[in-house]
Automatic annotation (TrEMBL):
It is found in: Cell membrane. It holds the Pfam family BPD_transp_1. PROSITE patterns: ABC_TM1. Belongs to the binding-protein-dependent transport system permease family. Residues 129-344 form the ABC transmembrane type-1 domain. Keywords: Cell membrane, Membrane, Transmembrane, Transmembrane helix, Transport. It is a multi-pass membrane protein. GO terms for biological process: microcin transport; transmembrane transport. It comes from Rhizobium ruizarguesonis. This is Microcin C ABC transporter permease YejB. The gene is yejB. InterPro entries: MetI-like, MetI-like_sf. The keyword Methyltransferase does not apply. The keyword Membrane applies.
Length: 362
């Protein structure tokens, strides 16, 4: 097992370098970079531009031209200003040099500072992390608490009326995107067109610090109700069907027939023999499910419900071309994904020692 873990750890290096390299190359061809963002602000507010720039009178000359410039809309701006902007954002260096420096810094978890927020990227991530963690943890708790008992029940009642109508509900829930369901909930219950029962933004109320100890958790879950319902749909459907199929496969095996022949009842067979083997894939997939709920599912929901988490931070950073935040979150998410994949394999071997990854190709 030690050799397998070492191979997986070593393979993480070229994998994450490849992910970052592809993203870096794509960014080079994406229009509207940080320099263009500043240029757009300057050309869009020419009357006050010199007031916002130190020495603006020297930099905003009327003789500038965008002929030969690689930045669209640079007319009227002195080339010296463009050069200063390039140096400020690090674009005065060749792309290969910038990529090499970025990866060296990231290997030491030095993510630099945001282009437009005047604070370190790591501090921003730490600040937004609790919101995303809250969503991820509660989604898993709710989805697993409902999906596993329901999946077992569907496996036992396979083909029955209960199985058919619950499958229909699950398929519809899985087919509807979580963000569309979130919009529907806002329209119905957050003051959209009908009822105004739930808040539309934030994780807690503005007067949260003034609430009593028992009012604080109520306020917290009051704000989380609609986002959690929206996010739980896809996770609920996937885990339920996975549990059902896993139990059906185990129920058909010979050891279950033998257990029943010994006179064991249905409950003893299910929870004394089938449960451990059937839950192998569910338990081993828990880290991956958490990462999925933590990072991917919350992106649109955080924006719809104005929750200031990592999903919203990443979205706004892409819109504003705040590349240090974009690349840092991508690096962290990719690294966590690779680590979680390894942890899932180790959980497999812990639950079932018969699994030996060292005899398989990585």
């Amino acid at each position: 097992m030690g050799a397998y873990i070492l191979r997986r750890l070593l393979l993480m290096i070229p994998t994450i370098v490849g992910i970052m390299a592809i993203s870096f190359i794509v960014i080079q061809f994406a229009p509207g970079g940080p320099v263009e963002q500043v240029i757009a602000q300057l050309t869009g507010q020419a009357d006050s531009a010199d007031q916002r720039l130190s020495g603006g009178g020297d930099l905003l000359g009327g003789t500038g031209s965008d002929e030969g410039s690689k930045y669209r809309g640079a007319q009227g701006l002195d080339p010296e200003l463009i050069a200063k902007l390039e140096k400020q954002f690090g674009f005065d260096k060749p792309p290969l040099t910038r990529f090499g420096e970025m990866m060296w810094n990231y290997s030491r978890f030095d993510f630099g500072e945001s282009f437009f927020r005047n604070t370190s990227v790591l501090e921003l991530i730490k600040e937004k992390l609790p919101v995303s963690i809250s969503l991820g943890i509660w989604i898993l708790i709710f989805s697993y608490a409902i999906s596993i008992p329901l999946g077992i029940r569907k496996a036992v009642k396979d083909g029955s009326t209960f199985d058919v109508w619950t499958s229909g509900v699950i398929v519809v829930g899985y087919a509807v995107p979580s963000f569309l369901f979130g919009i529907l909930l806002i329209v119905l219950f957050a003051g959209g067109s009908f009822y105004d029962w739930f808040p539309l933004r934030g994780l807690v109320s503005d007067n949260f610090d003034q609430l009593t100890w028992w009012q604080k958790p109520l306020d917290y879950f009051w704000h989380l109700t609609l986002p959690l319902i929206s996010l739980s749909l896809s996770a609920f459907a996937t885990t339920t069907l996975l549990t059902k199929n896993s139990f059906i496969e185990e129920i058909k095996k010979q050891y279950v027939v033998t257990a029943r022949a010994k006179g064991l009842n249905q409950r003893q067979v299910l929870y004394g023999h089938v449960f451990r083997n059937a839950m192998l894939i569910i338990i081993a997939g828990f880290p991956g499910a958490f990462i999925s709920a933590f990072f991917t599912g919350s992106l649109l929901i955080e924006n719809i419900f104005s929750l200031d988490g990592l999903g919203r931070l990443g979205y706004l950073s892409v819109i504003n071309r705040d590349y240090p935040i974009v690349f840092a979150t991508l690096y962290i998410f990719s690294l966590l994904g690779l680590v979680v994949s390894l942890v899932s394999d180790l959980i497999y071997t812990w639950i079932d020692p018969r699994i030996d990854f060292e005899r398989r190709d990585v």
